[in-house]
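Sharing a chain and its predicted structure for anyone who wants a worked example. Both blocks are below, sequence first, tokens second.
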Amino acid sequence: MRVDAGLARLLGLSRTVVATLAEDGMIALDGRAAGKSDRLTAGGWLEVELPEPEAPAAITAPPELVGGMTVLHEDEDVVVVDKPVGVAAHPSPGWTGPTVIGGLAALGVRVSTSGAAERQGVVHRLDVGTTGVMVVAKSEHAYSVLKRAFKERTVDKRYHAIVQGHPDPSSGTVDAPIDRHPRHDYKFAVVAGGKPSVTHYDTIEAFRAASLLDVHLETGRTHQIRVHFSALRHPCVGDLTYGADPTLATRLGLRRQWLHARSLGFEHPADGRWVEFTSEYPPDLARALEQLRD
């Protein structure tokens, strides 16, 4: 085979890239510079020098005041915020909206520099469409302690969710592995061989067509609550991505899932004392709840 065709297959590069390497003298065959059209021979000694990969462009969060985001608590180690809907935890490719990190920067809050550049200080995340309590580390010590606490599951994360119908039993545990959806890469699903995922729930209040649940996460997979209750055929009200009834969502005026990070408790990184923070329901969720009660 020709050098360009052979190396393209060997290394998974395009023939154009291989041709450029040859022109730059970065390919040698049996100790001599090889051109792109030279022939590869059995037993030949091939040497290829690959250039250093380009560093990925840094994704940063420009300081931007975030409407509706309030600081519930701040000290030298942590800052706890009440995240509104439509706000991402941190910047990511393709996201141009507001972020918690950008909002904190606009308030003059300096966060930990640990973690990837775009996620500095972030030890856990909430979906863009999920509101509620979120903690961000300010000191390097706090980042390490909180990251370990979330990994070891010593943090108490409680959500309130309104799901369609009435789960049976009214209190229980969902233990089902989660991974990427086999057909839709923007969704997750319960799949064999997925990551272990455990959700505990208790019914707080039952309505004619839905139930208000207190949900305790033992693990923290992406979309975990939404996926688990969808798999039980009790999707979060308003969660059209995971099979919710659009008619009910419209009647309640919901444009997102009824899911709220109600409280967050953890041992404070500074002295180990237990602290807990609570968030009230935002207006859209509170209105929908009242309509269900009427």
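Comments welcome. The chain is about 20% helix and 25% strand.
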